[in-house]
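== Polypeptide entry ==
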Amino acid sequence: MARPEKNRRVCKPPKMKGFKPFGIPKCELEIVQLTIEEYESIRLVNYEMLQQKEAAVLMNVSRPTLTRIYNKALKNITKAFVEGKAIVIDGGNYKFEKEWYRCKRCFKLVEEEQNHTKCVKISNKNFEELIQLDKK
């Protein structure tokens, strides 16, 4: 029996749910899925410019596991770019460090509901909890 995967730690959810290539109608697009942990590996290694060893510690995985996640992310992004496919960022085996919410009105990500000042008069019903979105 295979060993169960442990949750990868993710600092912050992505600001967007995906990308669509310019010039191709949405109805004609094929989709490539990028998991939340693949997004996080790209963010840490390429955007934050961390060494893979440091990124692995932040994600609570071994360095070889981070390398596999990172390489799969690069392959998926490259496939979408070259073949003109949309990227959807969703799913995976992850856990956020904090509770995150997205305002349904302005789509801003906030750590706590009371930290959201743009739409202050909006009730709590307008917040979507992001913890384990794909596991609901």
